[in-house]
Amino acid sequence: MNSSTLAELTKRVLAHRDERHWAQFHTPKELAVSLAVEASELLALMQWKTGPELDETLAARSEQVRDELADCLHSLLLLADHMKVDLGEALKQKLQKDAAKYPVEKARGKNVKYTEL
Ligand SMILES: [Mg+2]
Q1: Res 104 pLDDT > 60
Q2: Dihedral angle at the C-alpha atoms of 5, 30, 44, 70, nearest 10 degrees?
Q3: 87 touches 81 (CB < 8 A)
Q4: What confidence tens digit (pLDDT) does each residue in 16-64 have?
Q5: DSSP letter for each residue of 35-68
Q6: What is the distance in A from the centroid of ligand 1 to the CA of 78?
């Protein structure tokens, strides 16, 4: 993670959008669809790969992985701006909720849902 703040990055994606007059297409649903599509494109890079083959594939496709991660963030920043969500605050609050659901003493080293702890 570099030093760019979420606010700075949001300004950049909004400028990119506005230069192209694309706000008219950016409903919350379309932005959520875009986020899911970009996450799927990231998954597609890993499809059918496991273990060492997955590691090798990701290394060979590192630029594509980076591009898809950027696409995900791009869509997420646009959606959060549209929904007036402060992503930094939202993440901090969600981490607090998750910490209550997954207390360290119960969850450490386990990969099960909180209902199974
Ligand atoms: Mg993409």
Answers
A1: yes
A2: -20
A3: no
A4: 999 999 999 999 999 999 999 999 999 999 999 999 999 999 999 999 9
A5: HHHHHHHHHHTTTT--HHHHHHHHHHTHHHHHHH
A6: 15
pTM: 0.91
d(CA 90, ligand 1 centre) in Å: 25
Q: According to the CATH classification, is domain 1-85 in 1.10.287.1080?
A: yes
Domain-by-domain residue ranges, the chain?
Answer: 1-85, 87-117
Q: Under a CB-based contact definition with an 8 Å cutoff, are residues 9 and 77 in contact? A: yes
Interval between CA 43 and ligand 1 midpoint (Å): 11
